[in-house]
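I hope you will forgive my troubling you with a question about protein structure. The matter concerns a single protein, recorded as an amino acid sequence and a row of backbone structure tokens. Please examine both parts with care and let me know of anything in them that strikes you as inconsistent. Here, with my thanks, is the record as I have it:
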Amino acid sequence: EKKRKAAKEEEEKKVEDPKKRKADEKVEDAPVPKKEAKKEPGRVQKEDAADAEKERDAPAEKRAALKAPVTFLTTDTTLNVVPAAGGKLLMAMTEGGMQYLLAGARASVGVQAGRYAYEVKIVEALNPTESSGQHRGR
């Protein structure tokens, strides 16, 4: 019986589907039809919703602009802040263990509500783990 089943399986393998091709056969250079993307009606609605979610400009400011320039109050700074360049530049002391302290200053104008923008330029970035006495003889 086992031999008969094996013989039947071999015959079935010989009879192949004509649509299938073997790996050894060459493929004809027939042009492959391109698939078109399906257009869904819901897709258009999603794109419109995405456009509506984009950030809009803030309304024009109706309050009066500041007349006095914004400055740092040197009396309201921490002990390790050193004002320079006429108060426009603030430096933090880095000697004698002062590099481990946070430096802070207060401006002459406060914020109540709304959007405000200010510009900060970092002139020097120090690593507090490095100390000036690190290169001494060991």
User: Anything to note?
Assistant: The CA atoms of residues 30 and 95 lie 79 Å apart. The mean pLDDT is 73.
